[in-house]
Amino acid sequence: MNTAQNTKDRIVELGRDYMQRIGYHSFNYKQIALELNIKNASIHHYFPSKEDLGLAVIEKDRQDFIQLTQKYRKAKAMDKLEALIANYEYFFSEGRKLCVLSTFSSSYNEITERMQLAASQYGELVTSWLTATLKEGLEAREFSFKEPAEDLANVWMALMPGSLLVGRMGGKPTFDRVIGSLRQTLKSS
Q1: Helices 50-71 and 77-93: crossing angle, nearest 10°?
Q2: Which of 64, 78, 119, 172 satisfies CB 3.0 to 4.6 Å to 104 for a cystine?
Q3: What is the pLDDT of residues 87-122, one digit of tens each?
Q4: Predicted local distance difference test score (pLDDT) of residue 1
């Protein structure tokens, strides 16, 4: 990898980290520039606007999600969901970060239309994957739930980011309880 690509990738990673920890609107190029020991103009070379960096962060996270799903494509449905949960446990342990989808969902009304579209399309990708995984687990009798898989996928889409939000306030025990409740949605009472 050449130096320019390495710098560009580092900018995206640091941008993602800041956006997950403090939010899209709260971070600025100066924070990244200081960390990389470069000038703001160097960041603007790769990402002329904050929107460009935001779009790159969404795309990077989307690609990471696709890699995760490919890695586990032959796994049992529960193992696939546990891999997703592991990501959220990592976000929580790494400074109580939000996931990229919740980062942009929380500021959805204030971001540009291009960013709204990118975030929405990414969310649809995750929801579709969750729906397919839930159906797969139900058919394989790994899961037992009564509601439509599409509805349960939406519950997961709300509770995964929600676990990070309430975990910020209530700490690890609260985060763990929400994740435990999420796992319980896969079992009929």
Answers
A1: 140
A2: 119
A3: 999 999 988 889 999 999 999 999 999 999 999 999
A4: 58
How far is it, in rounded angstroms, from Cα 81 to Cα 97? 20
> What CATH number corresponds to the domain at position 179?
1.10.357.10
Is residue 71 a part of any domain in this protein? yes
pLDDT in tens, 144-182: 999 999 999 999 999 999 999 999 999 999 999 999 999
| Average confidence (pLDDT) over 54-76 | 97
* Contact between 150 and 157 (Cβ < 8 Å): no
Q: What do you get for the CA distance between the two ends of the chain, in Å? A: 52
Q: How far apart are CA 112 and CA 143, in angstroms?
A: 39
User: Which sign, positive or negative, has the C-alpha torsion 95, 66, 62, 145?
Assistant: negative
Domain that holds residue 75: 54-184
Answer for the pair 19, 103: CB distance below 8 angstroms, yes or no.
yes
Computed over every residue of the chain, the mean pLDDT equals 94
